[in-house]
Amino acid sequence: MTDSFASSLERALASLIVQTLKLKVEPATIDPTQALFGDGLGLDSIDALELSLAISQTYGYQLKSSDPEIKAIFSSLRALSNAIEKNRTK
Amino acid sequence: MHDAPLIGPYNPDEVLAWETDGPRTARQFLSDVSRLADFLPDRPAVLNLLSSRYEFLVGFAAAMLRRQLTLLPQSRAPQTLRRIAGDYHESYCLTDQDEPVEGIESAVQRRHGSIAGWPRRIPHIPLNQVAAIAFTSGSTGQPMPNRKTWGALTAVARATGARLGLKTGERTAVVATVPHQHMFGLEASVMLPIMHGFVMHAGRPLFPADIRDALAEVAGKRILVTTPLHLRACVTEGVCVPPVGLILSATAPLSRSLAQEAERHFQTEVHEIFGFAEAGSVAERRTIDGDRWRPLDTVRLVQDRTVWVVHADYLPVPVRVPDRITVDADGRFVVHGREVDQINIAGHRVSLGDLNQKLLEIEGVQDGVFFLPDEGADLVTRLIACVVAPGKTVEEIQQALRRRIDPVFLPRPLLLVPRLPRNDTGKLPREALLKLAEQHVKGLSHEA
Question: Which of B138, B271, B291, B395 could form a disulfide with B144 if both were Cys (CB 3.0 to 4.6 A apart)?
Answer without folding.
Answer: B138
